[in-house]
Amino acid sequence: MLRPVRRPRVPRNRLLYQLLYRLRDQAEWLSGLNVLRYTSTRILLTTLTALLVSLFLYPWFIRTLERVQLGQVVREDGPKSHLAKRGTPTMGGSLIIFAVVIPTVMWSDLRNPFVVLATLVTVGNGVIGFLDDYLKIKRKNSKGLPGKLKLLGQLLISVGIVYQLYESGMMPDAVRYKLALPLTNFYTSDLVLPAWLYMAFAIFVILGASHGVNLTDGLDGLAIGPVIISAGTFLVLTYAAGTMIAGFDIARYLNIPHIPGVGELALYCGAICGAGIGFLWYNTYPASVFMGDVGSLPLGAGLGFLAVASKNEFTLAIVGGIFVLETVSVMIQVVSFRLTGKRVFKMAPIHHHFELKGWAEPKVIVRFWIVSFALALVALATLKIR
Description:
The chain is an all-alpha fold. The chain has helices spanning 15-21, 39-67, 93-107, 113-139, 147-167, 195-216, 224-242, 250-254, 265-283, 293-309, 313-319, 321-340, 350-356, 361-381; strands at 244-245, 248-249. The chain contains 14 helices and 2 strands. A two-stranded antiparallel ribbon has the order 1-2. Helix 3 (93-107) runs antiparallel to helix 4 and helix 7 (224-242) runs parallel beside helix 14 (361-381).
């Protein structure tokens, strides 16, 4: 069983950190390495490492994808302008996952169970996304892994992650099944759910976030922008929920749940930001590489895990409002067509609706980014409006 981190400790089981931190006493000029014990320093290093890995490896990676002919398969019923994208290298998300996981492992405390679970949920959903993308390319159509099989795989991963998160002692008893609502004082609220209902809700959040990002990934850079913004927001939220500075409890001051150890997930958030920015350099319109399900599924699941681990499930609905909008637009379209035979939108997800209304692709993308940034500010504002 994974064990919780109950109090701040000077870590010893970090890969690169272990090598560098132990050198601090070897010579006076190395004493500056002492700063590596601070979470804030390691957040910066993780973000920078992920950014550099992503920026420098993508040119080689794109050439490799072109050489093995892993090109994008485009829906025939989609906007006609997208047909020109056929053959663009896809599965670029696999390098994003590499650029997220490696720096996280390098700079994080590997004894921290939150970091272990974040890595597992990322890699697990990445494998499912890889199989889905591979089958699309092999069969040369937009239908990859059967939907029920893909959902089953993600469900099994989410169930295992959520069970470990809530039933292994990682969560303090006082906060375990208690809902944390925006704009409310967590410590005066008594919204406690039955264990089975809370865990079912947490599983739904992880699955919903994963598929929300997947549905948003339809235009060049459209999904990765809100993912970066969301990860940056959760960097603040997880750091606040799990970090004490000189005995000062940030979470208690902000009236949000204090969860020992969850602050280490801020490094994971930084890795997503760095890897995402590096990917965006090559994915911005017109894209040189596409993310694919191998990137969108694990990134979305990772955001969902950050939400349930820091008890910000409802805050995720705010900061990830673009993903919610895309998902709801598909649901409305399907329900409307089945009940009335009519479509509410010209095409779903909703970003295609705006395309068919005449918006240029870059205009849709940038405006969605702006909305995502505004929603992130609203989410952060809820920390003080309680």
